[in-house]
Amino acid sequence: MNRKFKQIDAIVRGLNQATDAHFKWLVKILRFVASRDADLPDITCDNAHNFCEFGAWLNAQLAEEGGDRNYLLDIHKKHVMVHQACRELIILLDKDAERSIHFDRFETALLAFTDSLARYKVHLLQLRTSYDALTGQPLRRILDESFDSMNDQYSETGLFLMLLDVDHFKKINDTYGHLAGDCVLRSLAINLEDNIRREESVYRYGGEEFIVLLHAESGRAATVAAERIRCAIAAAEILAAEQRIRITFTAGLTRVHRGEPLREVLERADMALYKGKNAGRNCTMLISRRLDCLNVSA
Questions:
Q1: Dist. CA 189–CA 192, nearest whole Å
Q2: How far is it, in rounded angstroms, from Cα 210 to Cα 195?
């Protein structure tokens, strides 16, 4: 299953646990106010936000290089404000100074903190729905949102899009059942991930179609990579419905040119895929921007 898909689930679980811990921290404040039997660093010290359980989780997340950093930085800012407002309020409880403004400040900080958490949770849940529940692979929406930035970053060094379609997938469903077909798609997704480099990407395009973005300096290097993947999939056995099933796929491969919209790249790859099916399937067709096609599996 896609690493990012599992990572989102792990972040949501960790966030929920850390949030629960912060509600318990509020109870700890009440106990501290009532007893004052010992100084608690997550309440009384200047950098109390680093001592609570939520702070430990948040610091660990900030240490990772992820695309959610802006959300996490906003949560961190609001988290610090909560602890600062709490500390000021605790200090003033022992004095005769006006306290209402500090109660209001603590309330405002706490509400801003929970609002920041809510926005991050909505972001994570929206992100999770952008991944296919069956295979764990990102869906077309993720590709649409990230394609332009990937084009800018990698098109000069070589970026290729491979659109692949499982050969005779309907026959698999008709012969072994749809559950077996689902198993085939899950196994294919795992095998695709296992046969690409870490910086490359796999997407569930729809049905039995997948997209792979390959990094290659030339058409020759891209075809070598595409053929390596095709042959690896063809050689793998998939255990489904107590049957050992082998599958093949047909692929259309094309280079992504700088500034080129995704729609044009997909149209070209789809044209090559169609030609590959007409050529007998189980092959990779390389297509140029001038629409010249070459069967690199022949």
A1: 5
A2: 14
- Residue 212, beta-bridge partner list: 162, 202
The runs of H, that is alpha helices, within the chain are: 3-35, 41-44, 53-63, 69-92, 100-128, 140-154, 169-176, 178-194, 219-235, 262-278
In b/e form, how buried is each residue of 161-190, taking b as 16+ CB within 10 angstroms?
Answer: bbbbbbbebeebbeebeeebbebbbbbbbb
Map out the domains of the chain with their CATH numbers. 3-128 (1.20.120.30), 140-295 (3.30.70.270)
d(CA 70, CA 77): 11
CA torsion 138→144→145→150, rounded to 10°?
90
Continuous segment of H or E residues that includes residue 285: strand 284-287
Q: Is 75 helix (H, G, I), strand (E, B) or coil?
A: helix
Q: Which residue in 208, 209, 242, 260 is the catalytic one?
A: 208
Is pTM, for the whole model, over 0.70?
yes
Q: 């602890």: which residue's tokens?
A: 83
208 catalytic? Reply is yes
What is the mean pLDDT of each successive set of 10 residues along the chain, which is 298 residues long? 71 93 90 79 87 93 85 95 90 72 91 95 88 90 91 93 97 93 95 92 95 96 97 94 92 97 97 97 97 93
